[in-house]
Every structure is written in C-alpha cells, then in structure tokens.
Amino acid sequence: MEVRSSVRGKFYTVEVEDNGAGIAKADRNLIFEKFSRGANSGTESGAGLGLAISRQIISRMDGTLELVAGKGSGACFRVRLPVVKVGR
Questions:
Q1: How far apart are the C-alpha atoms of 70 and 16, rounded to whole Å?
Q2: CA gap 8, 1 in Å, rounded
Q3: Measured between alpha carbons, how far is 47 from 17 in angstroms, rounded to an integer?
Q4: How many domains does the chain have?
Q5: What is the per-residue burial (b if ≥16 Cβ within 10 Å, else e) of 12-25?
Q6: What's the per-residue H, E or C state across 5-63?
Q7: What CATH code is carried by the domain that includes residue 66?
Q8: Using CA atoms, how far apart are residues 7 and 54, in angstroms rounded to an integer?
C-alpha cells in the first residue's frame, strides 16, 4: 500500500493505492453506489456501504472522492479537500 499527499492549489490531496488486483472495468461505475460490491472483491464480509458513505461525508466537506489510475495494478483512490486557512 502507498499513501501520497500534497497541497495542490486550494486543495489538499491524498491518494491511497493498494497492491491488489484492482477493480474490474465493469465495476468502476458502481463501486460508489450503496450496497455495491465488486464481483472480484475477494471477501464475503461487508455490506458495500463504505465507499458510498465515505464519498457522502467528503462531499459534505466540499471535497471529492474518486477512483483514479495508480502507478501499479491495484486500486487507487483520491480524496481532495479544500484547504481552509484559520485566521487569528
């Protein structure tokens, strides 16, 4: 697993990439839907709510959560949140 972060313009960006088999093309449009689990998820547990809930929380903070191309064959997710400067 690899985690990368940076500040790009007005956004703090975090990318999390695993080294698994990745997400099948057929599943990429569905993974953020409630109760959706990939055909090749390799797990019997989970309700398929994690990504949907995560995306909703991040959206309420004016950010985004998306699946992006990574450096390897695994899944790579990018979170972008606005940078907020706190005044004194």
A1: 9
A2: 22
A3: 22
A4: 1
A5: bbebbbeeeebbee
A6: EEEECCEEEEEEECCCCCCCHHHCCCCCCCCCCCCCCCCCCCCCCHHHHHHHHHHHCCC
A7: 3.30.565.10
A8: 21
Cα-flanking dihedrals φ and ψ of residue 77, to 5°? -115, 140
Which residues of the chain fall below pLDDT 50?
A: none
Looking at the domain assignment, is residue 87 inside a domain?
Answer: no
59: its two tokens: 């959206």
* CA-angle at 79, arms to 28 and 56, nearest 5°: 75
List the one residue out of 50, 23, 22 whose CA is nearest residue 35.
50
Q: Which domain holds residue 29?
A: 2-82
What is the predicted pLDDT for the residue at 42? 57
